[in-house]
């Protein structure tokens, strides 16, 4: 034996390349054995799920998500999810060793359903659970946008994303898929059939195989609700002079939202008002300003051609905004003569300055300028961006500057103030993701965010204090008030700018207030990035600014600035 080993050793001393080759093969074989152990588990598939005719759980347009989210680009049946479990091996299993896909044995289904109901009761404020519904890849129950996340899907995440896009319903399926829609186009089934746990929320039910757990979203975000391409505006009382307020009227015995919206779109009107069996089209005007919304129950008469939608009554109209652009406030130009005064639109970064410029340009018809130059904003239509800030050709000048010398260069100012918690996050997103982009998860979790708060939070306070101290004629506008009551607050801003604007033009601005300067809610952080020390520091700055405002007989900061 020793002689044989000696010969073997001498052979490889003479042939070192062969030695290394055999060693590499040995290591490769060992690795393959190790990897194989992670792929042997395969979840069982019930007959119903394995049958391709039953349809898979996912089909629809994917939406961008954070982190490990996966986009759904086509139909996926139970077999595909089974292959996911095989492909990713042990990490696809829970702590108890059971596959997260849960495609086979549904033991404890009723237990999970009961746990899910407890969570549903907590969800009542933002959404109401209405039942388990059949779903089919060939004919979806909810036909709006959809997205998937096979690691972090939760009920709230699905609801929030659907509500952000203005949908009435949110449905969860296969524990990881979210569907949005304006109406449910499927039949109700037994609660026991919605029996799959949410991937990102233990103990909560997120539908089942070809089954949707459906929620009706509450009306907190009604202003953004949609029906197809139309935006829901609310329920309103019939205007006094109907023919002047809404000049086009058509009788529709078989009324539906689609038919009325299509009619008004064809006639090129931005408003479609449903009044039972009549459809009215027009513009928002002082005769029909859409400011005094009524209880939606007053409009709750079902459409004759649609089971799940309201079509209003002869006295109370359901109003939608069509995709027709209201051109009454779209004309913009430079000032016809050089202005003798420079008016600042001053704000801390992230306080909504770009959005405020958009509103001012629509309301006045004149371009706004900037203390800086941003090519991306110029390309988006802010033509005053290229002018020198002292050119006198723009209605006001964007600036984030503070300090006595810079402030005293202006003859007057609109000072836009925003909740520092929101402003800091908005500016951090802009800094690392652009004007409507988002900072990466690594930036929030890395050293960048604490350092940013440490440097920028004091500036939020000193910026306001400096403008209050050195500004010659300062109009304070709170970002939150501008969002809540745009008509009144924008009227104040325009008045300071010295431009006479008709109310109808301001109403036109209201209907196009967002422009292209709003971030999607899809990538909202799912945790509070502010530590206790950060909150303590920022709260002190809020109190400082609040005291300074009240010391000048101005309204203090809004209540929602603190406490957190």
TrEMBL record:
<dbReference type="InterPro" id="IPR051589">
    <property type="entry name" value="Sialate-O-sulfotransferase"/>
</dbReference>
<feature type="domain" description="WSC">
    <location>
        <begin position="229"/>
        <end position="323"/>
    </location>
</feature>
<comment type="similarity">
    <text>Belongs to the WSCD family.</text>
</comment>
<dbReference type="InterPro" id="IPR002889">
    <property type="entry name" value="WSC_carb-bd"/>
</dbReference>
<protein>
    <submittedName>
        <fullName>WSC domain containing 2</fullName>
    </submittedName>
</protein>
<dbReference type="Pfam" id="PF01822">
    <property type="entry name" value="WSC"/>
</dbReference>
<dbReference type="InterPro" id="IPR027417">
    <property type="entry name" value="P-loop_NTPase"/>
</dbReference>
<feature type="domain" description="WSC">
    <location>
        <begin position="126"/>
        <end position="218"/>
    </location>
</feature>
<keyword id="KW-0677">Repeat</keyword>
């Amino acid at each position: 034996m020793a002689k044989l080993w000696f010969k073997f050793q001498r052979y490889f001393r003479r042939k070192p390349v062969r030695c290394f080759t055999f060693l590499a093969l040995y290591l490769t074989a060992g690795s393959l054995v190790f990897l194989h152990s992670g792929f042997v588990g395969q979840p069982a598939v019930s007959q119903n799920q394995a049958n391709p005719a039953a349809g898979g759980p996912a089909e629809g347009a994917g939406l961008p998500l954070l982190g490990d989210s996966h986009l759904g680009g086509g139909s996926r049946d139970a077999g595909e999810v089974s292959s996911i479990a095989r492909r990713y091996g042990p990490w696809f299993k829970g702590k108890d060793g059971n596959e997260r896909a849960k495609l086979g044995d549904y033991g404890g289904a009723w237990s999970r359903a009961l746990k899910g109901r407890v969570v549903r009761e907590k969800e009542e404020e933002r959404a109401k659970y209405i039942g388990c519904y059949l779903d089919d890849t060939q004919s979806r129950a909810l036909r709006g946008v959809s997205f998937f996340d096979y690691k972090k899907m939760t009920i709230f995440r699905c609801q929030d994303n659907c509500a952000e896009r203005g949908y009435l319903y949110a449905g969860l399926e296969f524990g990881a898929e979210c569907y949005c829609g304006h109406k449910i186009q499927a039949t109700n089934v037994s609660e026991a059939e919605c029996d799959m746990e949410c991937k990102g929320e233990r103990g909560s039910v997120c539908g089942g195989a070809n089954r949707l757990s459906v929620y009706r979203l509450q009306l907190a975000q009604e202003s953004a609700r949609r029906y197809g391409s139309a935006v829901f505006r609310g329920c309103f009382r019939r205007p006094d002079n109907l023919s002047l307020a809404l000049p086009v009227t058509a009788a529709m015995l078989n009324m539906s939202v689609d038919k009325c919206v299509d009619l008004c779109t064809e006639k090129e009107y931005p408003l479609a008002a449903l009044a039972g069996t009549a459809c009215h089209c027009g513009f928002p005007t002082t005769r029909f300003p859409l400011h005094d919304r009524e209880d939606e129950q007053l409009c709750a008469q079902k459409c004759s051609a649609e089971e799940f939608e309201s079509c209003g009554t002869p006295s109370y109209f359901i109003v939608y905004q069509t995709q027709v652009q209201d051109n009454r406030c779209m004309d913009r130009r430079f000032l016809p003569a050089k202005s003798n005064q420079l008016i600042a639109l001053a704000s801390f970064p992230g306080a909504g300055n770009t959005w405020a410029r958009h509103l001012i340009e629509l309301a006045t018809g004149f371009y706004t300028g900037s203390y800086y130059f941003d090519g991306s904003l110029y390309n988006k239509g802010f033509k005053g961006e290229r002018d020198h800030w002292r050119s006198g050709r723009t209605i006001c000048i964007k600036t984030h500057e503070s300090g006595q010398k810079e402030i005293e260069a202006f003859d007057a100012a609109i000072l836009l103030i925003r909740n520092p918690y929101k402003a800091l996050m908005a500016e951090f997103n802009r800094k690392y993701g652009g004007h409507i982009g988002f900072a990466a998860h690594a930036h929030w979790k890395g050293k960048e965010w604490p350092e940013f708060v440490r440097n920028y939070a004091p500036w939020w306070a000193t910026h306001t204090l400096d403008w209050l101290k050195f500004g010659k004629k300062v109009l304070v506008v709170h970002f939150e008030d501008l969002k809540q009551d745009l008509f009144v607050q924008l009227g104040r801003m325009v008045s300071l700018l010295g431009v006479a604007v008709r109310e109808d033009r301001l109403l036109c601005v209201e209907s196009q207030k967002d422009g292209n300067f709003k971030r999607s809610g899809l990538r909202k952080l799912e945790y509070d990035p502010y530590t206790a020390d950060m909150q303590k520091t920022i709260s002190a700055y809020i109190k400082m600014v609040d005291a300074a405002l009240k010391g000048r007989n101005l309204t203090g900061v809004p209540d929602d600035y603190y406490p957190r």
